[in-house]
Design a protein that fits this description.
The chain has 18 helices and no strands. With 344 residues, the protein is mainly α. The radius of gyration is 26 Å and the shape is elongated.
Length: 344
């Protein structure tokens, strides 16, 4: 640690001299060498990264770009949240994709790298954002494979919203791939996505029941439910054999989940209380985000009480401040409901 400041000053001095030198092959070699030493010591030096960007595109060399990826991997091994390094890595991948259309193997290795870094560095938003950035470069088979492989990882990291955001990005990519011409292949893709969405809802409910009070799981369910309800509403076959719409059946399942959360026994860690609050706010969120199901939802809620009663039961602290919340609601959102403040 005592020698690092001296090393940094020496590397910065050498880099400055090479950057100020006249153009030429030797200057480029020195600039790349000295900038590498400087970045290993201080990866936040954007000027050094930009110098490398100026030299590398002169003559496309895949070997040099692979070395650049190795340099980034080295820096990320001890500085996994360094935004400059992640940004430079994306620049390199973009350059490779411009000259080599088949980057599936490279993308596969990138996904493995992000997974390893995420395991060592918890809640690493920058690593997961990089993984989301890779999705447009993936084939449909790779997206499906990533969705399958990430299932186990998510089950072991239920409090990390970043990994669930990655799954949402994968699901949206699959939805976009369905927006092609109405062919037999597109119909098969749509059917596959609908089945995946239904399985995702079932899997998410299993995690919610197993791990109480995890907000990331309820956020993921909001995303899944919003699209699923809209899909059921727009579907041509919304009536089942019993005469009840599929939307009503789905809402009944969500009310049943809410009822189980409301009636869950208290625990010493207070997770059941947090679970109850998250479940009530989830139901409120559905009524606000999908107005078409609000009346149906309120009818279904009779088994557990009105929406206002459910919120008061799930959030007793907010009930004591109901007057202040109501005033704040009128002032900020001009809502006329006592629970409008909670939506904020």
């Amino acid at each position: 640690m005592e020698i690092l400041p001296k090393l940094y000053r020496a590397a910065r001095h050498a880099y400055s001299n090479s950057a100020a030198a006249k153009d030429g092959p030797l200057m480029e070699i020195d600039l790349m060498r000295h900038s590498k030493a400087l970045l290993i010591l201080c990866p936040d030096m954007l000027t050094a990264w930009n110098s490398r960007k100026m030299v590398l595109p002169v003559n496309y060399d895949f070997t040099k770009l692979k070395d650049e990826l190795q340099l980034c991997a080295l820096i990320l091994s001890y500085s996994p949240k360094n935004e400059s390094t992640w940004s430079h890595r994306r620049w390199v991948i973009k350059k490779v994709s411009e000259h080599n259309q088949d980057v599936s193997e490279l993308i596969e290795r990138e996904s493995v790298l992000v997974k390893e870094i995420a395991e060592k560095s918890k809640m690493n938003y920058r690593a997961w954002r990089h993984r989301c950035w890779l999705i447009p470069y993936m084939t449909r088979e790779q997206v499906l494979n990533e969705l399958k492989k990430s299932t186990r990882w998510n089950e072991l990291h239920v409090a990390d919203n970043c990994c669930f955001h990655y799954r949402r990005s994968l699901l949206l990519a699959l939805l976009d791939s369905c927006h092609v011409e109405d062919t037999e292949d597109s119909l098969d893709r749509k059917s596959e996505v609908h089945l995946l969405w239904k399985e995702e809802l079932t899997w998410n409910e299993m995690l919610i029941r197993r791990y109480q009070g995890r907000e990331s799981l309820w956020i993921h369910r909001r995303f899944l439910s919003q699209w699923w309800v809209k899909f059921l509403l727009s579907s041509e076959e919304t009536e089942c054999a019993a005469g009840t719409s599929l939307v009503d059946l789905f809402l009944a399942q969500e009310i049943y989940l809410l009822s189980d959360c409301l009636n869950a026994p208290a625990d010493e860690f207070g997770e059941a209380c947090v679970q109850t609050e998250l479940a009530a706010l989830y139901i409120l969120w559905i009524s606000k985000q999908v107005p078409a199901v609000k009346l149906k939802l309120e009818k279904r809620l009779h088994s557990v009480g009105s929406l206002e009663d459910v919120l008061a039961r799930a959030c007793p602290l907010l009930k004591a401040e109901q007057g202040h919340a109501l005033q704040h609601t009128y002032r900020v959102t001009d809502e006329t409901t006592t629970y409008g403040y909670l939506v904020l």
